[in-house]
Amino acid sequence: MKSKLHSKRKLRQKYYLLPFVVLTGIFASFRQPIIQTGANVYSDIRRFIEVVNVVRDYYVDDVDTRSLVDGAIYGLLGKLDPHSVYIPADKVAQIDEKIAGSYAGIGVDFMIQNKYPVLIAPFPDSPAQRLRLHSGDIIQKIGSVSTYGLSEGEVKSLLRGEIGSMIRLTVKRPDFAETLIFNVVRDRIPLQSVQCSFMIDREIGYIKLGRFARTTFGEVRDALSKLEKKGLKKLVFDLRDNSGGYLDQAVAVTDLFLPGGRKIVYTKGRIPTANEEFYSTSTTQLKKYPLVVLINGGTASAAEVMAAALQDWDRAVIVGKRSFGKGLVQNQVTLQDGAELRVTIARYYSPSGRLIQRAFGSNFKDYFENKSGERLNRENTGKKVFTTFSGRKVYGGGGIKPDVEQNSYKISAATAKLEARMLFFEFASSHAKEIKQRYPDFGSFLHYYKISNDVLRRFWNFLRQKNIYYTDRQIPYIQQEIKSEIARQIWGNDHYFRVRLETDSQFHAAVASFPLADRFAVLSLGMR
């Protein structure tokens, strides 16, 4: 059943469309009449046009006035906030696809390695998976085109096309003497929001949600249904590094866990039509099991809305580190040339009244790298106190402060470089076959397989062959990464994430929080 959102007011895009379309027309021609919305605005726009005309007429070199205007728009928005942005027309489709929900192709995740695209994993129920393409497969040709030296974007462009069209792949599989030929028919490929979902044991389920796209509510609902059939009684919902997405999808997913009539989020802006309130409904089957939500500094925007609402209503225990603190609402406006403006019109507030947005100051680079945010959050924590539904204290000042704080494992810069180059993945490719022969099922592999000193010595030799001399020796982490990549190549992405949880301190803190989550579930769901 599709969840319906209750909103007291709806935004009217026309209020924001007219002024920006008018300005775009002015900037494009410099001859159209200006609609006077105030003496100062008229004077400032006329001054800008005068400067552009002077540069165009007298500058020592020929200038591209379009690029000048683009630069001016970037500068204008840079005076506002970090999230009001201008997207040129040629970049719109690329950015929209990230949260659009689907595209037409063969359905593979790949990386460029040794100048060839190498499959990390086929997507579930994709043409690539149905034809049994494997993790580690090297795509040598797409049609008649050699992939050697192609960029990631060029490979994606070749793999994608119209639904129903066929593409011929020439593939080199490790340990196979001959190349393999696959004739793959392109299909609609969903961009999954749910990165993985599985049972930890007979009672505890785990869902990792990477973003809030157009299909997120349905994906989460289906994942929960599958876990419930396997005996789900407690849930860890992982929102770490979820940068947000569609607000309506975050509201719909939150709605699954709250009784009807509970405020989930509200927005406040300068213009009355920017003010909205979103409530849970009674149209979805209420999930009553204890809930723990994982967050970190990469949890932002719509993901913070969900975490804040569940915390304010005492519905979930929030575990991890303080979230990013992105609580600004953007309205998307399409300009005449196909470019887009995403301009901030309001701020998000949690049900208890907490402002989710943290202070960003004037240095946007530090803001996005979360350098100033940690200091500002520490300064504000404790100064703005709010209460949950049961009367517990929660704190404002930007971001969501967890109920149970737990640091994650810090990897060194040298180890991060190994990850970035996918060297654990590459090394695991040469060992997956022998491991599969020794461990025919994942359960025995998870519980009994250990990365021995002999395997580690082979890994150090593997690095030296690439002229990498690694000295940090973060041994437990490296062992877990190698084991995780072996699991992915034999059993798939869910099993990759399952192995990684074995040494995840924040996840273990989440599991340890279920006694508190039990009490929260009774408290929250028992009140009407």
Describe the structure.
This protein has 528 residues and is α+β, with helices and mostly antiparallel strands. It has four domains: 14-81, no CATH class; 102-190, PDZ domain (Pdz3 Domain, Roll); 194-332 and 346-406, 2-enoyl-CoA Hydratase, Chain A, domain 1 (Alpha-Beta Complex), CATH 3.90.226.10; 413-503, no CATH class. The chain is 40% helix and 20% strand. Strands 1, 2, 14, 15, 18 and 19 form a six-stranded antiparallel beta sheet that branches. Helix 13 (423-429) packs across helix 17. The protein is globular. Residues 1-37 have low confidence and may be disordered.
Separate helix tally: 20
| Content-based structural category | alpha+beta
Averaged pLDDT, please? 84
**Low-pLDDT windows of residues:** 1-37
Cα gyration radius (Å): 26 Å
The count of DSSP E runs of length 2 or more, i.e. the number of strands, is: 22
Tally of structural domains: 4
Q: Outline the biggest β-sheet.
A: 6 strands, antiparallel
| Fraction of residues in H or I helices | 25-40%
Beta percentage is 15-25%
Q: Which term fits the overall shape?
A: globular
The name of the CATH superfamily of the largest domain reads: 2-enoyl-CoA Hydratase, Chain A, domain 1
Oligomer: single chain
Structural key phrases:
4 domains; 22 strands; disordered N terminus; 2-enoyl-CoA Hydratase, Chain A, domain 1; globular; alpha+beta; 20% strand; six-stranded antiparallel β-sheet; 20 helices
Quick synopsis:
With 528 residues, this protein is of the alpha+beta class.
